[in-house]
Design goal:
Elements (H helix, E strand, L loop, with lengths): L1 H17 L2 H15 L12 E6 L4 E3 L10 E9 L7 E5 L8 E7 L3 E8 L9 E7 L7 E8 L8 E4 L2 E2 L3 E4 L15 E2 L1 E3 L6 E3 L1 E10 L5 H7 L11 E5 L8 E2 L9 E4 L3 E4 L7 E6 L8 E5 L2 E9 L4 E7 L14 E11 L6 E8 L2 E2 L3 E4 L8 E3 L3 E5 L1 E7 L12 E4 L6 E4 L8 E4 L7 E4 L3 E9 L2 E13 L11 E3 L5 E3 L9 E4 L8 E3 L3 E9 L2 E11 L10 E2 L21 E6 L5 E5 L14 E9 L2 E10 L2
Parallel strand pairs: 31-36, 37-42, 43-47
Antiparallel strand pairs: 1-15, 1-19, 2-12, 2-18, 3-8, 3-15, 4-5, 4-12, 5-6, 6-7, 7-11, 8-9, 9-10, 13-14, 15-16, 17-18, 20-23, 21-22, 22-25, 23-24, 24-30, 25-26, 25-29, 27-28, 27-30, 32-34, 33-35, 35-36, 38-40, 39-41, 41-42, 44-45, 44-46, 46-47
Helix pairs in contact: 1-2
Length: 628
């Protein structure tokens, strides 16, 4: 792919030299679209696969002119439970009724790989190969492989799940394989019948089709069947993993670059093949007391209690989080994840699997059968009596933490209630409240202390909170009636005689439950608690009466009685103090409640100083003449 992109880049440079900038940008854009046509790749685990309908779907790949022995063909397949007859997997040359090239085919009862000599068709004399009886191949993902080291059928080997299934020679030709037809195209999922009138189509799903121009040993088959390839492996001349998420092209990831083209209504989907970034296997005839482990750093899978005596066990590791994460909180699980596959010919094998991290059992796990399953299911660790296969991913292994929050004081009403929540997922934890409830959150309507214990596979945690419902907003109150007066007497302002955990804020920001008012002015207070507040204001206003006309002369004993007395406004009489002072500063008269009844007394005629004062008037000073 890189070399193709590099050539395209050089072509663009040539366009730039000979065309306008607009044409260059257009060409660059078109190239960008081409280079990104296959940019959406699901590279995680087995990724994607193709599904064929058994009627007219297949994938046409490139020309395999002159391909010859030795050869190895392998694939992961899911043969639909309703599939019948021949279901072709990979065919190298298939546009001519004359037998030539090779064909790799499975049916519900047989696995075969044959080749043609190019001298004729519709007769066993023109072909030869090997065929083996099979069972238990419908409705499950299996790995199939054919190894053809030479022309001799006796050298050929057929494998299912890494197990050599034997078989017998088929056909009668003794001639080499003919594969020089330049017009032929290889096909995945399609086979032309030997009389040219009937075609066979694969019904089911296919993944990880691989073609080598060398013969893999049985050990190599077992070591590579559950492990994805890089594409540069020795002898690899065809590698279609179908991991593109869209489009009608199947990229050949080998150096041959024989990309395939979809024909018919080929569907893409998530693959259930047992494929990982790395794998480990063990094949034995006796599993009694045997186990198999796979460790990568701190992560380790141990398979034990293997029942049913499968031919082999494969453990594969995927170093990323899965593509399908249904049922998972991706913040609570961590990569890698592992798969366990019983590499068997039968379907009744079970095993236990334990996931450890840093030598300790992971607190919890999630499992699914394979990558084609969208949702994971929470599972205890270890998982026991697993039938045939499973995939496992661990939780992060953190003990539960629970915080019910701060104590709460709530306003009491006839319908008051509040929710107390752990904020944790019901699916991952179990809960025990002192109320007997077992849910993640509860609703309460009575004062008290509430606690919960949260448990998962890692341990448990406990927390409590106090809820108080006996609080109510402060009632309305009054500091009293505002008033106007001439004289101020100290007043003690107290909103409530019986306190109930209220907070007070007075006009001067003091916070006592009472306030001593000592002067005229405006006073207010706000009384509050957690449920609300009430306020009131009172004003004490000072009254000042006007003096009106104040005499500056009196004429006692003049006989007409007009100015005999010193008189002020009658409304002030009794409320003021009247003082008279002579020129030498001596007080010669004083009345603390003057009643307009002073006529100079025995004072001589002359000029005197006087002062009028009182609570209800402004102090007044002036001169007074007494004339006799």
């Amino acid at each position: 792919m890189f070399s193709q992109q590099y050539k395209s880049f050089l072509n663009l440079l040539h366009i730039f030299r000979e065309h306008s900038m607009i044409k260059f940008l257009l060409s660059f854009f078109l190239l960008f679209l081409g280079l990104n046509a296959y940019s959406q790749i699901d590279y995680i685990g087995s990724g994607r696969c193709i599904t064929l309908d058994g009627i007219n779907d297949y994938v046409q790949v490139g020309n395999y002119k002159n391909i010859n022995f030795p050869l190895t063909i392998s694939a992961w397949i899911y043969l639909d439970p309703s599939a019948i007859g021949a279901n072709p997997i990979l065919v190298s040359n298939d546009d001519n009724v004359t037998y030539h090239g090779f064909w790799f085919v499975i049916s519900p009862t047989a696995l075969e790989c044959e080749f043609g000599d190019g001298t004729g068709g519709n007769n066993a004399a023109y072909r030869q190969g090997k065929i083996a009886s099979v069972s238990n191949v419908l409705g499950r993902w299996i790995h199939v492989c054919a190894v053809m080291p030479s022309i001799s059928p006796s050298d050929m080997a057929l494998y299912i799940n890494g197990v050599n299934i034997g078989g017998n020679a088929s056909g009668g030709s003794g001639l080499p394989m003919a594969s020089s037809n330049t017009n032929d195209k290889g096909k995945i999922g399609y086979l032309l019948s030997n009389n040219g009138n009937v075609t066979y189509h694969f019904k089911g799903s296919i993944d990880e089709v691989r073609l080598y121009n060398r013969a893999l040993s049985q050990t190599e088959v077992q070591q590579t069947m559950c492990k994805k390839l890089v594409g540069n492996e020795t002898g690899l001349v065809g590698y279609w993993n179908f991991n593109e998420t869209s489009g009608t092209t199947a990229i050949d990831n080998s150096s041959a670059k024989q990309n395939g083209t979809f024909v018919g209504n080929v569907q893409r989907g998530f693959s259930g093949a047992a494929i990982g970034d790395d794998s480990k296997n063990q094949y034995t005839s006796n599993w009694a007391g045997n186990t198999l482990s796979f460790q990568d750093g701190n992560d380790k899978i141990n398979v034990s209690n293997i029942q049913g005596n499968p031919e082999g066990i494969q453990i594969y590791e995927v170093k990323n989080l899965p593509s399908q994460t249904g049922g998972l909180d991706t913040s609570q699980v961590s990569r890698p994840y592992f798969g366990i596959y019983t590499a068997s010919l039968d379907v009744d094998n079970t095993f236990n699997a334990t996931y450890t991290y840093q030598g300790t059992n992971s607190c919890n796990m999630f499992t699914r059968s394979d990558n084609s399953i969208a949702a994971w299911t929470s599972s205890a660790n270890p998982v026991t009596n697993v039938l045939q296969r499973t995939e496992l991913i661990k939780t992060n292994g953190v003990s539960p933490k629970v915080d019910l929050g701060a104590n709460q004081t709530l306003c009491a009403t006839t319908t008051a209630s509040t929710a107390i929540s752990t904020g944790l997922d019901n699916n991952q934890f179990s809960f025990h409240w002192n109320t007997g409830q077992t849910t993640s959150s509860i609703t309460v309507n009575q004062s008290g202390e509430y606690w919960v214990e949260v448990t998962n596979a890692c341990g448990s945690a406990k927390d409590s909170v106090k809820i108080l419902f006996d609080e109510a907003p402060p009632p309305t109150f009054s500091l009293g009636e505002s008033n106007v007066s001439c004289k101020f007497d100290t007043v003690l302002l107290r909103p409530f005689l019986n306190l109930s955990n209220y907070q007070f804020v007075w006009q001067d920001n003091s916070t006592n439950s009472f306030f001593k008012a000592t002067t005229f002015g405006k006073y207010w207070v706000t009384v509050k608690n957690s449920c609300g507040e009430s306020s009131d204001t009172i004003a004490f206003l000072e009254m000042k009466k006007p003096l009106g006309l104040v005499p500056n002369v009196i004429t006692p004993n003049d006989g007409n009685n007009l100015n005999q007395f010193f008189k002020i406004d009658n409304s002030l009489t009794g409320d003021v103090t009247f003082r008279v002072i002579n020129r030498w500063g001596r007080e010669v008269y004083k009345s603390s409640a003057y009643n307009n009844d002073w006529d100079g007394g025995d004072l001589d005629s002359g000029i005197y100083y006087f002062v009028i004062s009182g609570d209800c008037v402004e102090e007044y000073k002036s001169w007074l003449s007494i004339i006799r």
